[in-house]
Amino acid sequence: MAQRYVRIRTATASTYYGLLQLDRSVQVLDAPPWLEGQPGEQVLEPESYQLLAPCAPSKVVAVGKNYARHAAEMGTPVPQEPLLFLKPSTSVLSPDKVIVYPPLSRQVDYEGELALVIGAYCSNCTVEEAKTKIWGYTIANDVTARDLQKRDGQWTRAKGFDTFCPLGPWIVRELNSSAKLQTFVNDQVVQSATVDQMVFAPNVLVSYISQVMTLLPGDVVLTGTPEGVGSLQIGDRVRVEIEGIGALDNPVVSR
């Protein structure tokens, strides 16, 4: 099994990065792994920590309509260049924590996605250089207030609510280019695709973004969602799975 890099909080509110072991214990690192954190002697037992989102990005840069069939289901053409938007760092949510259905919206949608974790300062990178800036891969759910997105004509409010970016459960360094992505709502499959169906590949996205803004170590890039997006209801449980990574699971609650 590939090494799984986690971020955790202990009962004393200390936060660590670490390596998840098969028995669910965590070997603590002395720094974030993309900053060359090394394992030490401290090992935390499974019942002694809470799993957090696997990084704390300064920003989450997301890409819209990066699967042709999703663009079609939205009634729009595939963009000629990556379509970028931002989700605030305050939208990031840990595995198993609740997605809060905001009172301002009447239609909240799931969007299962592959997320890239940036490992090094990245500005004006070529497509080839961008490959070396992607430190690892995790899972995201780009939760969206679809009615507000349509009403506003731009996406900041619809994408930016607290809890609207579940992320995790951990980071892996390598991923099969044809890994399957599936989203489940109450254990029913609602999205199914392989990540090689993206219009713009991960390194192309990172290079393109770096022409606009500097990506910092620990930043996250969401690579777009496949077809099958749909609405969530209060009481639902949504799970996004990516082959070779794992599963990201979150319930939906009212405020």
Average predicted confidence as pLDDT: 96
Total of domains: 2
The major pleated sheet works out as: 7 strands, mixed
**What is the H/E order?**
EEEEEEHEEEEEHEEHHEEEHEEEE
State the helicity in percent bands.
10-25%
At CATH level 2, the architecture of the largest domain is Alpha-Beta Complex
Coarse structural class: mainly beta
* CATH level 4 superfamily of the largest domain: Fumarylacetoacetase-like, C-terminal domain
List low-pLDDT spans: none
Radius of gyration: 17 Å
Instruction: Give the N-to-C terminal Cα separation.
Output: 39 Å
**Continuous helix count:** 5
Which word captures the global form?
A: globular
* CATH T-level topology of the largest domain: Fumarylacetoacetate hydrolase, domain 2
- Physical arrangement of strands within the biggest beta sheet: 7-6-17-11-12-14-8
InterPro entries: Fumarylacetoacetase-like_C (IPR011234), Fumarylacetoacetase_C_sf (IPR036663), Rv2993c-like_N (IPR018833)
Keywords: Hydrolase, Metal-binding
GO molecular function: acetylpyruvate hydrolase activity; isomerase activity; metal ion binding
Protein name: Fumarylacetoacetate hydrolase family protein
How would you portray this structure in words?
The chain is mainly β and 255 residues long. It has two domains: 4-51; 60-254, Fumarylacetoacetate hydrolase, domain 2. It has five helices and 20 strands. The protein has a seven-stranded mixed beta sheet with strand order 7-6-17-11-12-14-8. Helix 2 crosses helix 5 (202-210). The radius of gyration is 17 Å and the shape is globular. The mean pLDDT is 96. Keywords: Hydrolase, Metal-binding. InterPro entries: Fumarylacetoacetase-like_C (IPR011234), Fumarylacetoacetase_C_sf (IPR036663), Rv2993c-like_N (IPR018833).
